[in-house]
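In this section we walk through a basic example: taking a raw amino acid sequence and producing a predicted 3D structure, encoded as discrete structure tokens. The instruction is simple. Fold the sequence below.
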Amino acid sequence: MEGSIESFIVDASYVIARIMPDEDEGNSVRRKFAKFGSGDISFFSTKLLPFEVINSIRSAVLRSRFDDDTAKEVFEEFKLLEIPLLEIDFNETLGFALEHNISCYDASYTYLSTCLHCELLSKDRKLVDLAKEQTLAT
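The resulting token sequence is shown next.
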């Protein structure tokens, strides 16, 4: 992404660490989201992000981590983040997933990170490493 501020791709695990009330988001996530909120950095993601987030919220309710009302509050918090969602090339994403033996969801974030030369923010260390490796290779 071009511009004067640093841009990042965020995946569902990173966003969930921030919005779920029972997750330990850690200082790094907290600092990045504070910078995003103040406009010092930009976040982008794929259009799959909301689906992964609501599925995680649903799973948390089914596992009795919190109730329906809390789930609705968590989803509202997610919507307030207003992370811009970008289109991906599904053919390229499928090829990337097959080549690297990862889910198509993970491939969408990693592929977007690679294409846009933006660091991937994820709680999945292997995915972050793969994104870095691919970005360096392009």
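Looking at the output, two observations stand out. The chain is about 60% helix and 10% strand. The chain has a mean pLDDT of 92. In the next section we compare this with other chains.
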